[in-house]
Amino acid sequence: MQENRQTKIKLKFRREPIRDKERLLHILQAINNIEEGLKKHDFNEITNDKIVYFGFVKQLEIIGEDSYKLTKEFRENHPQTPWNKIEGMRHVLVHGYYSINVNQFFRVITNDLPTLLPQKERYITELS
Asked: Which pTM value belongs to this model?
């Protein structure tokens, strides 16, 4: 019984081409969530309110996690996106959250994410 459950869990998280579109949609939603949050909160509000701050962090974690779960083939076919950097940032956010540089973090969500948005929209169109 336990082995069967573990097998199902492993299959659920397998990197499958059919799931790439779903993961890209998650990434797109997380980017949109961050953009909506930036309309409501400025740098001082984000960095001074830990609940708000970690809400933004969580969205970046989602972007990193879903980028990591994209198939190798998809990532290789779309080298213009810095997949390894996105994945690396996710690792820092999850495992090194105590050492996040808030200025760098804010630059990522205000400067880097807007360039990812049209890429992800284009990728989703390609997979449709």
From this structure: 0.84
